[in-house]
């Protein structure tokens, strides 16, 4: 029986979940993996705060060095969230040769280079299954099961808050602000929801996922990002009529040396496996040249599902003789030889408000035709007050061409109300 | 750079796929894993048979000892299928200390005990990701990512042939025989389809999956098995009207020391993630006490997807210092202390053909009521030739109670046409 001494950095929702799971599963872990995790020290901000779980008072400390610098601690779990001081603390633990398990996508996405460098230099392990999509084993799968694949595309619903909001908007026809308030009341959205609704959280996760999938660092700052704050119930309803569901997707594609990486509201066909991923569930759909299409679906957040991933990393770490496993170049720059494009190709949903007069439709189609864009579906509604709603979906087209066409269309007679990308595959 | 010498047992569709993937991905494997796989010998039945891939003639042999007994070969890949001689050959390779990677669910499900015993005794590794659901990393996930979970239930679409047939019957309203013939013509069903359509293939996979999920051996012969040969287009159509999709599911549940394990046609709500898994795709849905609901979806068969899993096992095997990883008791008997029940609980869809006369419905509901079974939905169609179709779905009920009620109902006035289990969760 091996005993591994463990320290926590932070003990909020996730930390308490890990505490609980390690305790209730102690015998199974001992029996299955011949290991015992001995939690020795827990860094908290306030030792007197009331906690969900019966964490013994004597383990709590407000002195970080008691966790990061204690030579008796073999493993450090980080549950603080945010970039700092989490990055600094993890660095310190890695420099002291400790195995670090983190659930912190932000710190990892922004500082992967220095964290990984420190791990390599000091022979420490760095594990982060819980940082992306909670219980879903997407990190392990990408690293350990898809090694013989050229992953060409991945598309994920990686943020539960926005998926909950969009699912309810779709089911109820409600407006964004209304559902957001409800989600906040239910504790499903933060009082300041910007990290979720503006797509930051999804972009951190996409940076990590696409870097692993492409074996090439895709830094956070090259990712195009558009949140859901401008999504309107009208567009969701039109999409529904045309057979599409709106999701906030994190998308990364690779074609030879050209990569695109983006987070934005996206229409997908109702028949797509991602379309039925509702509420706070997450899912990652990917395509590899050998495995073909694959999807992993599950709980992307929550105390117990995240703890499931953390404890799996702890067991995975102790089962390895060689620590760490990130194989691509450690750099916060885009890998040399790769190019990120902002001129990706997909279909586009476009909603226009046009004066109901002769020649307007001809004008619109001409503007699109000038940029080589052809139309797949077009729907025109009866004019109200002399204005008609025109909704169209294009065939495959380039982002730049569409933007150019839309700025040509936008005029006194035609207002461009919205443009939403459509991923058909 | 480490070189691993490899022998193949068999070189049909999967073997050729592995040959191709290892060759086209040689540089990436070298670069990513610092290993080179050197294929030295390939056992075939006929060295002169024309093969898809340009497998060099000089590697082929019809002498199995040249693969299993050659001390220069470190790893043996088994692609023969069937119980024998595959089991015997794998045993021999394991006894010679070789790492064995197999795609053979039948040999594994039926002879896991002796294969694993030989592996343990001789310090050999035995890997089988490709044996269950092709490219889907369900073996790795169960072992390496869900260690801290008590898996309470799993339900899978684990056979592509039957899923293809049922998907087409559902979409087209066609009859079983008709679609089966078409599937055979397209090469999607075998000339003798019984292993697929009678549920044997699914039961082999369920034996492997449930044993790993429950950390307790669930042998093949305790699994209840019912195929799709009796499925009628009429029931699929009625199910559709009630909001259910018919799938051949492999189901295993555990409640304390009681297990049920079964393969049968099953109605699931249209909104269930498994309901939209169509065509030859596979998916496994499971519930763990910590991870909550999870689903893995992908290609369950085919040359390239299966090769993706085989090569991932090869890389996984060489990355480990300790071979083998099966942690439960190696026995072909049910684990001591466990009990398999054939009195599982679920909902039931029942179709009856009743004479259109007073008192018949009262009789039916009385028979059900006598067994404590209550009705959730009931639909009665206009009588044709004095006979009415009655379709009902029960609330949660026990299998034995339903069987008892149905044999009481079945009489001169009421014929029980079909009974299909319904899994609502």
Quick recap:
With 425 residues, chain A is an alpha/beta fold.
In CATH terms, what is the fold-level topology of the largest domain in chain A? Dihydrodipicolinate Reductase, domain 2
What would CATH call the class of the largest domain in chain A?
A: Alpha Beta
Q: What is the strand content of chain A? A: 25-35%
Nearest-angstrom radius of gyration of chain A?
A: 24 Å
Biggest pleated sheet of chain A: 12 strands, mixed
Query: What's the architecture of the largest domain in chain A, going by CATH?
Result: 2-Layer Sandwich
The amount of helix of chain A comes to 25-40%
Class computed from helices, strands and strand pairing of chain A: alpha/beta
- In terms of per-residue confidence, which ranges of chain A show pLDDT below 50 for 5 or more consecutive residues? none
Distance between the termini of chain A: 49 Å
Please tally the helical runs of chain A, counting DSSP H or I stretches of 4 or more residues.
14
Mean pLDDT of chain A: 93
* Pair of chains with the largest interface and how many residues each contributes: A-B, 51 and 51 residues
General shape of chain A:
elongated
* Quaternary status: homodimer
Q: Give the beta-strand count of chain A.
A: 18
At the fourth level of CATH, the homologous superfamily of the largest domain in chain A is Dihydrodipicolinate Reductase, domain 2
């Amino acid at each position: 029986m091996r005993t591994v001494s463990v320290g926590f950095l932070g003990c909020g929702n996730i930390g308490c979940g890990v505490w609980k799971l390690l305790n209730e599963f102690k015998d199974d872990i001992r029996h299955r993996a011949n290991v015992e995790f001995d939690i020795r020290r827990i860094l908290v901000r306030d030792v007197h705060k009331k906690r969900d779980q019966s964490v013994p008072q004597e383990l709590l400390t407000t002195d970080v060095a008691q966790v990061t610098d204690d030579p008796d601690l073999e493993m450090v779990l980080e549950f603080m969230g945010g970039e700092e001081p989490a990055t600094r603390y993890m660095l310190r633990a890695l420099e002291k040769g400790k195995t670090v398990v983190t659930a912190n996508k932000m710190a990892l996405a922004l500082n992967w280079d220095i964290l990984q460098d420190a791990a390599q230099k000091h022979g420490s392990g760095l594990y982060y299954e819980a940082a992306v999509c909670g219980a879903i084993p997407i990190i392990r799968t990408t690293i350990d099961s898809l090694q013989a694949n050229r992953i060409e595309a991945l598309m994920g619903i990686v943020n539960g808050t926005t998926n909950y909001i969009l699912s309810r908007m779709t089911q109820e026809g409600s407006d964004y602000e209304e559902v957001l308030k409800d989600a906040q009341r239910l504790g499903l959205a933060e009082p300041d929801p910007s990290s979720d609704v503006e797509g930051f959280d999804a972009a951190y996760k996409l940076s990590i996922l696409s870097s692993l999938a492409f074996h090439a660092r895709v830094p956070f700052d090259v990712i195009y990002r558009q949140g859901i704050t401008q999504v309107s119930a009208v567009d969701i309803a039109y999409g529904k009529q045309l057979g599409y569901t709106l999701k906030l997707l994190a998308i990364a594609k690779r074609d030879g040396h050209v990569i695109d990486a983006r987070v934005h509201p996206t229409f997908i066909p109702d028949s797509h496996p991602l379309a039925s991923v509702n509420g706070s569930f997450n899912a990652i759909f990917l395509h590899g040249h050998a495995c073909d299409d694959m999807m992993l679906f599950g709980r992307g957040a929550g105390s117990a599902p995240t703890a499931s991933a953390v404890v799996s990393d702890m067991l995975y770490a102790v089962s390895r003789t060689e620590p760490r496993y990130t194989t691509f170049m450690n750099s916060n720059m885009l890998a040399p030889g790769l190019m990120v494009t902002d001129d990706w190709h997909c279909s586009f949903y476009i909603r226009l408000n046009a004066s109901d007069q002769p020649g307007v439709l001809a004008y619109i189609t001409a503007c699109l035709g000038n940029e080589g864009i052809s139309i797949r579906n077009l729907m025109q509604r009866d004019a109200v007050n002399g204005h008609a709603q025109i909704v169209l979906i294009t065939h495959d087209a380039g982002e730049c061409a569409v933007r150019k066409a839309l700025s040509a269309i936008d005029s006194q007679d035609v207002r461009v109300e919205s443009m939403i990308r459509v991923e058909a595959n």
